[in-house]
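Table S7 (text form). Paired inputs.
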Amino acid sequence: MTSIDPTTGIVHGARILRSPNCDARPAGCRPELIVVHSISLPPGDFGGPWIDRFFTNRLDPDAHPYFQEISGLKVSAHLLIRRDGEVVQYVPLTMRAWHAGESCHDGRDCCNDFSVGIELEGLDDFPYEDVQYERLAALVRMLRESIGSLCDAPVVGHSDIAPERKTDPGPAFDWARLNGLLNAVA
């Protein structure tokens, strides 16, 4: 990752794989929040093609029993950081990704309208990789520097904006470590 084009919302250096699961942000809405998620498909498996297929509506429900439960969902995220540090972009930052669902932050509902969603390939209770923290911190810094409305954006977990429904990125995610990386001189 080298930079973000604020006009197109593309992260240069990310692998681009467009998801159809996005739309325009509501008039007057700009990204002002960064939401960290976790995902692995099937749960506990890393490195396969399933996340890409899920976010692009190409998940074969017969490939794994768990996929039958989720194959009809239409979801996405702006970005995914795989366990090896690869960054994948599914939705331009200028668009609304469908990552948060029913959610609320600071009294504002519908967090998809005003947030950027970043998935980490992982599980709530399984340690994340060093390179994932490094890439996440680099992305957050770039987002804050490249997109004016994100200059002071808080970084929260999915569990913070949908506590009744979600637990990710979970207790294995080290918020102090991320904050230390963000506060370190680049």
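Next pair, protein 2 of 2.
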Amino acid sequence: MTTERSPRVELVQLDRETLRALADGDLAAAEAGAPVPLSPYLAGPECRPVWDIRAVQVVVDPPSADWVTRVVWDPERRLAVGRAGFHGPPDGDGMVEVGYSIDPDHRRQGYARAALRALIAWAADAPGVSVVRASVSPENTPSLNLVRAHGFVAVGEQVDEEDGLEIIHERRP
């Protein structure tokens, strides 16, 4: 039997100014306010739309800042490898939705698995969370395999305005 070894990661929170700088693609300004060194990927075109949503969200709903997207940090390598977090605090039914993306230079190294595990543990420790959701494109085989391997079960579908068709998966924390 083989065991999957994942790197240890930390999910590092960013303040609203740093979120805004990343949304604007201004890596220098983002790094000036970030508690860890960032990577060009985090200020690049794949991540900017998410940072933009979160930068607005934390201004409109300040308590959501504790829940939203963070930097996935490898403390051993002292390296920012991606982003992960929730779309916001638990809704009225106790549901939180995960989101994550790993820099292409660091994919297939266990970082998405480690980040997802950290998010599940976070949800399990948080009062009021009863369901963790992951909405994944049917074309994203690696992410589908990842969520299914972590006990997520398909419960439906939705069409996201930006991402198109997604399969909704849920699990208890």
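Helices lie at 16-23, 27-33, 48-60, 111-125, 141-149.
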